[in-house]
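Entry details:
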Amino acid sequence: MLWAGFGCEPGEGDRTMNKVVFATYAQSNEELANIITMTESIRQFAGKYKDAPVWVYVSEYFDTPDSIFLKNLTGLDVELKTGHAPEDAMWFYYAGKTYASGEAEAAAEKAGADILIWMDEDTVILHEPEKLILGENIGLAYRPVMHNRSGSLYSEPPDQFWSRIYEKLKITDEMLFPMVTPADNQTIRAYFNAGLLAVRPRYGILRAWGESFKILYTDSVLADMCRSDVERRIFIHQTALVGAVLPRLDRSQMIELPGTYNYPLFFNQMFESSEEFESIDDIVTMRYDVYFRNPDPDWSQKLQGPPEKIAWLTARLGE
């Protein structure tokens, strides 16, 4: 394995450079197609990390991956792996991603990686992601959730859903701190966006994510809440991150990334938003969710930023 920034095997060359792995998860052919774009963006724009290993965990429950997509990913020097998850967890949205991230973290630690960058498949990298390269004593870099669809307002007592989560995950008031959602500017209790996480594998945060998620999804009270509220069923995997992070790290061991990371392109056209997200000037990593399933015909004309990067995105996302 060649390590990003080294051009050499682990243990050779400049030992001060961090060894970085990018990893993601797929359970559909749409997601595999997105990962091709994601990987091309890493190879094109990630600077000294453009040759970093890219691992794609394909769900064990995904029976018909497109062979052309898999071939294209192999051609981009992607390592394909199988993502495993308990069958009883799969009723909950994104359960497979939760467990695959823990498998990636364990594999990264075994391989001697210093930093694992876990990204959702709709991510595009547009600059060298230097703030994802964590300091020696930093265990996590994160962004807040995009908007407050399922968070707990800091100015109000937790509702029954979050109170149960805090109880089951043993989260105390002292562990919690405020963060502001980028799309609607609401101040909520700590709630980490699951679409972009940079971790030092030795802290075991992503492996703990799966453990926390299991505690939540096997709880009968929370399961009943998820049956009656699809929003809770969608996001319960993400709520589990608080149980993975807060008992393991204090605030000095984590950093909140700036808004140039995990930038939600055209989010204001898909969801309620008090902000517009139509410029890629200085953006390091961006997300596009499901926007390109049915984009505006003139989206590339609305997009602001470097013409060469708009042309790059148009060539890959515009058809």
